[in-house]
Amino acid sequence: MAQTAPASTKINTEITQAASGQASRRTPGRGGQRGPARAQARVAGDIRGSARDPGRAVVELDNGITVYPPEAEGEPWRAVFLEDGQRRYRQAATEEKLAAKLALVIERLEAEASNMVRPGADLIAHYLDPDRLPPDKRWSRKHAHTQLRLCERFAAPVIGAVTCQDIRTRHTQAIVNAAPTASEGQRVHGMLSAMIAAGIEGGYLANPRLAGVHWQAGDRPLAAQQVRVAGESALWVDPDEIPADADIAALGAALAAGRHGDRDELMAQTAAYSGLRWGELTALTVGQVSPDTRVIRVDRKVIEVAGHLYIEAPKCRKQRQAIYPRLTPAGYPLAERLAARIEAARAEQQAGLNPLGLIFPSPGYKHWRSSNFQRNVLKRAYLAIGWRCKDGDSQISWTWHSLRHVFCVTALFTWGLDARDVSLMAGHANVRTTLDMYVGTTAGVLDRARTATQ
C-alpha cells in the first residue's frame, strides 16, 4: 500500500532542484560574493498528499493555493488556485520563480481584488462609471465632466495601458506632475486620490499609498504664497471685494442703457439683494416668485457643460427659499419692478413669445449662456462704470458673483438677520461657511483683548 505523506509538516527550506539542470557557476576562492546574499523566495506551506495520488506530496498555501513540486528533474513547479470563481494555474521552472509569481496572486487574493489584472483604462472607466455611486450620491454633470477631462488629460496617458497591479507611486507621481501649475496639480491630486479609493473598493488596487504624492514644481516657477491675517478664514471675503450700494446703482444704470433696458438693471438688483447665483437667476421663472410675500423658491439652476445647457437642482441639491426687500438701501423699488416684470413675463408666455416663462430670458427668450451675457451685456457696462479697462485688465476685482456677497453682507449687518437664516437663504452648505466668509474673528479677538487690557 502506498504510504501517505504526513498531514501538517512544513516544507523544507533547502534547495530542492538545481537551476535548469546546470551546475552552480559560483565557485569558492574567487573573492567571495560582491554584495549581500539575496535570499531566495520559497514556497512555504503545509505538505499533504494529493487528492488524486496520495503518494504524491503537494504544498498547500493560504488562500486556497495548491503547489505541485516536480516529481522528476527538469519538470516545472505548478500551482493551482481559484480566483473570481475560475480555476487558474501558474507554473515556473524553479521554486523561486513560482514563488515570485504567487506573490502577486496572493496579493490579489488577500485583498479580494481580482480586477488587478485589468489595465489602468478599466480602472479609469470604473471611476467614471455613474453606477459606481448610489443614485442619491451621484456626481453633478459639471463635476462628472471635470473628472472626465482630468482623467483623459492626465491619468490615461500614464496608466491607461499599465496593468493595475503594476501601478506604482512613480506612475501616480507622473500623473500629478503633468499638471502645469500647483493649483491644477491640487485638482489632479484630488481626482487621483478619489480614483485610488474607488479602485481599492472595486478590487482594482490594493495599495492606498499610491495617493501619497504631491505636485512637484521642478524647474517651473512657483506662485507667491498667499498670506492672510491670523484669525481669519481662508474663505473670508474682503470688504474691498464687495461693491457698495452706489456701485450697484451705477451698474444698474449702465445696464439700463443697453439693449434690454430695465430688465437687465432689474436682473442686477435682484442678484444683489436676493442672493441668487448666476445659474439660479437665469433659470428663474414666473412660477418661482411670489410678489405678495416677496419669496423666491430656488429649485433649479442652469449649467453649461461642454457647450450644452442643462437644468438641474441647485447647488448642494438643496432647494431653498429666499426673500427680497421692497426697497434696496439705495432706494431702488425692487419689489415693485419685479412684480411688473413677472406680469410682463406671463403675458409673453401666454402669447407664445416666452414659452418657458423666464423672468430674465436671453434675446431669443431662452436661457442665457454665461459667456454670451458676459460678452454682450456685462462687458459694455463694466467699461462704462470703470470696473474694467479697454485693454481687458481689471481695475476693480468685482464680478457678477460679487453681487451675491452684497446680499449676504446686507442681510447680516443691515437687516440684522441671524447667520443661520442667511445661510439657509443663500444656499450655503452649512452655517460655518457663512461665518467663515463674512464674519471674521479677528475683530472679535482684538475687541476682547482691548477690553481686558483697559
Report on the architecture of this protein.
This protein is α+β, with helices and mostly antiparallel strands. It folds into 3 domains: 56-112; 120-211; 239-444, hpI Integrase, Chain A. It is built from 14 helices and 11 strands. Strands 1-2-3-4-5-6 form a 6-stranded antiparallel beta sheet, covered by helices on one side. Strands 7-8-11 form a 3-stranded antiparallel beta sheet. Strands 9-10 form a two-stranded antiparallel ribbon. β3 and β4 (66-68) form a beta hairpin. α6 packs antiparallel against α7 (262-274) and α6 (245-256) crosses α10 (370-385). The longest helix has 20 residues, at 182-201. It is elongated and about 100 Å long. Residues 1-39 have low confidence and may be disordered.
Lay out the secondary structure.
Blueprint: E1 9-10, E2 46-49, E3 57-60, E4 66-68, E5 77-83, E6 86-92, H1 95-111, H2 120-128, H3 141-159, H4 169-177, H5 182-201, H6 245-256, H7 262-274, H8 278-282, E7 289-290, E8 295-298, E9 301-305, E10 308-312, E11 320-323, H9 334-350, H10 370-385, H11 402-414, H12 419-426, H13 431-438, H14 442-452
Antiparallel strand pairs: 1-2, 2-3, 3-4, 4-5, 5-6, 7-8, 8-11, 9-10
Helix pairs in contact: 2-3, 2-5, 3-4, 3-5, 4-5, 6-7, 6-10, 7-9, 7-11, 11-12, 12-13
Concise description?
This protein has 14 helices and 11 strands. It is an alpha+beta fold.
How many domains, as an integer? 3
Q: Give a quick account of the main beta sheet: strands, pairing sense, barrel closure.
A: 6 strands, antiparallel
How do the SSEs run, as a string of H and E? EEEEEEHHHHHHHHEEEEEHHHHHH
Question: In which range does the helix fraction lie?
Answer: 25-40%
> Roughly how many Å apart are the termini?
103 Å
Distinct helical segment count: 14
- The spatial strand order of the largest sheet comes to 1-2-3-4-5-6
Mean of residue pLDDT values: 85
Low-pLDDT windows of residues: 1-39
Name of the CATH architecture of the largest domain: Orthogonal Bundle
Write down the CATH class of the largest domain.
Mainly Alpha
State the shape: elongated
Structure class: alpha+beta
Strand content: 5-15%
Instruction: Please state the CA-atom Rg, rounded to the nearest Å.
Output: 34 Å
